[in-house]
Here is the input.
Amino acid sequence: MFSVTIETVGNIDFRQYAPITSPHRLEAETFQVLRKLIRDYQLDEGIGGGNWTNPTLHHDGQPVGWMSYNCRVWEPDKSWPEAEEITIGRN
Here is the structure.
């Protein structure tokens, strides 16, 4: 099971000074399905890149890495630009 808890922040470019959503947990049996759920949630809630907080992706309860706005996964203990992308299988 793959899961992520999405939290947002305000984007000062749009005069948002507080989170624009409450924390929201999404989970799915496969990473591909989870990515679709995330993209749909981003669109439905009007979440842009300036609202995104790079949540931690979990697989079977264990942290895998952090997710950028485009649903790519990055090494958990490194930040941009040092982090390398983690390729998640087609599961």
